[in-house]
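Its record is set out here:
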Amino acid sequence: MTIASFTDEYTSLVPPSRIFKASIVDSHNLIPNLMPQAIKSIEFVQGNGGAGSIKQINFPEGGNFKSIKYRIDELNEEKFVYMYTLIEGDALVEKLEKITYEVKFEQSPDGGSISKVTSTYYTEGDFKLKEEEIKAGKEKVLGMYKAVEAYLIQNPDAVLRNVIWTLFCCVFKFVICVVWK
C-alpha cells in the first residue's frame, strides 16, 4: 500500500460559518440544486449527518461515475472542521482502498474565510497515483466550492432562510406526530 497526501488552500469572501453551513452541513440540499449537471442527488444512507453517518452522492447518467459513498468521521460546527472517508464507489476503482479528507475553515483578515483541504489516498498494492487524475479531482471540488461561494454572495440571507425552513419543518413534523396522533 502507498499513502499519498496533498494539502490545498482556498480563499473566499464568505465568512467560515456561512460557507461551512452551506457547503458541508446543508450540502445534500444545496449542491444538487446549484450543480444539477454534475450532482444528481446527495442522500443519507445511514445516520442523520453527524459522525458515523454515511452519505451517497449520485451522479447524472452519462457521466464517468454512477455514485460514491462516504462516511462522516467528524463534523465540528463550532470549529468548522469536517473529516470524511470515501469508502465506496466508482471513483475508488480497484486501485484505491480509500481516500480521507480533512476540511478546515478559518476566518481570514478581510472577514472572509480560508479553507484548508488535506486529502490522503490509500492505494492498493504498488499502484501509483497519476498527477493529472488528482488535479482533475481537485478542479471539480474547487468548481463546487466556487459555485457555493457565488450563490452565498448573491444570496446574503440564504443560510438564514435554510435555518428558518428547517425549523418550520421540525415544528410541522412535531405537530403531525404529536397533535394528530
Notes: The first strand starts at residue 3 and ends at 12. The two ends are 56 Å apart (CA to CA).
